Amino acid sequence: MEQSIEIEDMISVVIPCFHNNDTIRRAAQSAVEQNKVSVEVIIVDNGRTLDRSVLDGLDGVRVLDVPDNIGPSGARNEGVKNANGEYIAFLDADDWWDKDKLRKQLKVMKEFDIEGESPKIVFTAREIYDQNEVDTGKMVPCDRLVGFKKLLRSNQISCSSVLMKRETALAFPMQRDDIHEDYICWLSILKEGGYAYGINKPLLLYTARKDSKSGSKLHSAAMTYGVYKYMGIPFPGRLIYMCTYALNGIKKHIL
Description:
Elements: E1 11-17, H1 24-32, E2 39-46, E3 61-66, H2 71-81, E4 87-90, E5 96-97, H3 101-111, E6 121-129, E7 135-140, E8 145-146, H4 148-153, E9 163-165, H5 166-171, H6 181-191, E10 196-207, H7 217-230, H8 235-254
Parallel strand pairs: 1-2, 1-4, 2-3, 6-10
Antiparallel strand pairs: 4-9, 5-10, 6-7, 8-10
Helix pairs in contact: 7-8
């Protein structure tokens, strides 16, 4: 019998919002309507760009008013600090979820362990939509178990798919918006030990935007190199990991 979800297991969903009035309701609604979990949704109004009327009639949503633009890292960190849940789930304002995403992740977090240790991060595969919200028919899969070294070879953890304990999110705040702030966070967590668990089902519906920070492949590669440098990877190791990064990128494109 599947383990029941207790109220103590509440999940705080943190959604940064910066000029996302066209998509924020869909994202928030997909979080509010999760099956069989207790959820609070925290929208961080980064720079006061949110038209709150787009959320009319949507219950279970709290808006944090941030007058200045503190970037995606600062917005997520602010949401974590103000969260009430035992767990944190991140969701970008232009992405959305399958209704069973959080239930399946919480089940893994509570029931799976390796030598008595539960996952530090639970993430999922993702289905890709283009910037016009058309399903491309492409799914980006993920491995079941990911440690620090495997994650260095390819960042297969999408920010909008992550569930972790709030204490972990507080201990490893996001930083460095000029490179991949989320990748730094996952690597920093796993560098201290433990593992991430991937659910290889497209429970995240992900919007691939050409104008996003990672939209340019060359720019994204440069930021990835910056992550390796920031994490203290020696120069020969950076070159090796950049090769695996490029090969994985080609594989994704072909598939």
